[in-house]
């Protein structure tokens, strides 16, 4: 059984007991959260497609930790002008574990 669910503006294919890194979510570590914007559910070869979401379907998850991703370096330069700018960015992520998928 798996589902396609929209989490923080992105779509993920999730299954039970799967670990995911999603954009930062509100909540403490160890807290349980539910996502009700389920777009598709597959159960034993039977597909249920929502228009746009499947009514009554929910995905439950547990927040494992909040962390930051790898650093991305942004470098701007204009040749022969002496203009250089170096900037770095680390995206905040939340690691979640899918607890259950209910229809």
From TrEMBL:
Keywords: Ribonucleoprotein, Ribosomal protein, RNA-binding, rRNA-binding
Example GO molecular function: rRNA binding
InterPro entries named in the record: bL21-like, bL21-like_sf, Ribosomal_bL21
Entries under Pfam families matching the protein: Ribosomal_L21p
One CC-aspect GO term: cytoplasm
GO biological process: translation
Top-level taxonomic group: Bacteria
Subunit note: Part of the 50S ribosomal subunit. Contacts protein L20.
HAMAP family: Ribosomal_bL21
Record family assignment: Belongs to the bacterial ribosomal protein bL21 family.
Main function: This protein binds to 23S rRNA in the presence of protein L20.
Protein name: Large ribosomal subunit protein bL21
The species this protein was found in: Pedobacter cryophilus
